[in-house]
Amino acid sequence: MAPIERITLFKIPNEADRLRLLEQYKVLAKTATKDGKPYILSAAVGQSFDDPRNKGFTVSVKTTFASMEDMKYYDAECEAHKALKAVAAPIKEDVLTTYFESVL
């Protein structure tokens, strides 16, 4: 079974709010645990480059999980992710998430 790759895009118009979200992702990277151990295989986050193809999405995130079970834990139970969602909820205009198993 291949790892689960997850892409999340945020549309956050205010620069200061984008920076707050980026800082919260740094906290998440240090504190997200399952059964007392880190479980996110890798994470990358940054402000999207200004390009018409991004359709106004301003923050891009890629996370990798060992399994679908780990990603579901992230969505439903992870305290670090809950804290991140609390920061993102009032500042985002929109969010888009997709995930897949790579064929490469």
Automatic annotation (TrEMBL):
It comes from the Eukaryota. The lineage of its organism: Eukaryota, Fungi, Dikarya, Ascomycota, Pezizomycotina. This is Stress-response A/B barrel domain-containing protein. Pfam families: Dabb (PF07876). PROSITE patterns: S_R_A_B_BARREL. InterPro entries: Dabb, Dimeric_a/b-barrel. Residues 4-100 form the Stress-response A/B barrel domain.
